[in-house]
Amino acid sequence: MKAITSAICLLALTAAGCDDSAPAETATETAARHAAAGPHAVGYTVLSHARGDAPALAVKAWYPTTAAAADVAYDAVVKLPGFGADPVPFLGHAALDGAPAVEGGPYPLVVLSHGFGMNPEWYHPLAEHLASHGLVVLGPEHSEHDWATDVVAASGARPREVSQTIDLAEAGALGGAIDADRVAVIGHSYGGYTALAAAGARVELGQLEARCADESDPFLAGFFCAPFMGAGEALAQAMGLEAPPEGLWPGVGDARIDAVVPIAADAFLFGAEGLAHVTVPTLLIGGTGDTAAPWDWGTGMAFEHVGSATRGLVALEGADHFFMTTPCERMPWIEALPEAYRGMFCSDPAWEKPAALALTAQVTTSFLMETLVGEPQAAAALDPALFAAWDGLSVTFSRD
């Protein structure tokens, strides 16, 4: 992937010469500007959303600030099985509890839904990048731990927690620095499921049952099929329904959402008909070698069937599941994990992780600048022709 790394470095270097307001900016210059850090310093704080008798929802916030950013340790409790209960540091760059910037605001909202059993901090390089470009990123801390016991309940809780995060923004979080009329959701892995559900995708257990009936792959049968087969009543309860419906289930989407970016997304609960109910602009990013959310159960399925008139696909050839999470050098505690975990999070079989993360940040920024900000040059920065020479990368985009 050296060709891709070099291309990203070249874009970042040329960004210094780009004028944000220059009418003659080329598509390559716009992509360069989106690849580089934006003009804003980044603040970070932890918000809390009260939920009546339920525990308060912790929400991690990255946003433009007037304070000076510095190297910082975000402390979070890692929820991996067998890991300790003490917080550990994720090393980032932000102004802790810095005052939100007023000039240029209010800023569009991006809700960040983390992968199952993870934390928002696993994605802080992406969150910092987006905040530097004038977006507020709010990451609700989903509370699940164990896939086998928690995924059914989480399937109902997660879309609600996205909506509760938008509620928090509408209530004036960060001193009114958030424009809650412009909202996107980014989600990785089961956060990708969450983004699709929040955008209107509808569950259809019948298609999953048919798919699982003859599934011989032990991972797929055990991971995607077993937790949901015979769990209709529990899933209905988790989604606030009295009984499991026949056919398509009612949607749990939030009409306030304007765009979604599912990354390495789980899409197996929806099927073709359920995904067709996603109509907001959608950018799907994923690896064709994903072993945790296989292409035909996730990113590939979702791109084929979402009903969005504006939809894009960024396919990283051979990439596995964690290609865009926080690099391990920013997680010093990773050395305490078993080698199998370290290998899963610290490397990718086909891509250099810094290149994959930089690419994800660049295309996500361009997409959100187009859909949330209305930046006129942003669509050109996603022109598939710009990426045609990049080794191992396929970019597709349509705007009907």
Secondary structure elements and pairings:
Blueprint: H1 2-15, H2 27-35, E1 41-51, E2 54-65, E3 70-76, E4 88-96, E5 107-113, H3 124-132, E6 136-140, H4 147-170, H5 173-176, E7 178-188, H6 190-198, H7 205-213, H8 218-225, H9 232-238, E8 259-263, H10 271-275, E9 282-287, H11 299-305, E10 310-316, H12 339-346, H13 353-373, E11 393-399
Parallel strand pairs: 1-4, 5-6, 5-7, 7-8, 8-9, 9-10
Antiparallel strand pairs: 1-2, 2-6, 3-4, 10-11
Helix pairs in contact: 1-2, 2-13, 3-13, 4-6, 4-9
Q: How many strand elements?
A: 11
**How many domain regions?**
1
CATH superfamily membership:
Alpha/Beta hydrolase fold, catalytic domain
Q: What is the first-to-last residue Cα distance?
A: 33 Å
Q: What gross morphology would you assign? A: globular
Number of helical runs? 13
Order of helices and strands: HHEEEEEHEHHEHHHHEHEHEHHE
CATH topology group: Rossmann fold
The major beta sheet can be summarized as: 11 strands, mixed
Rg to the nearest angstrom? 20 Å
Classify the helix fraction into a percent range: 25-40%
Question: What structural keywords apply?
Answer:
400 residues; alpha/beta; Rossmann fold; eleven-stranded mixed β-sheet; 13 helices; disordered N terminus
Describe it for me?
This protein has 400 residues and is of the alpha/beta class. The protein has one domain (42-346): Rossmann fold (3-Layer(aba) Sandwich). Helix content is 34%, strand content 22%. The radius of gyration is 20 Å and the shape is globular.
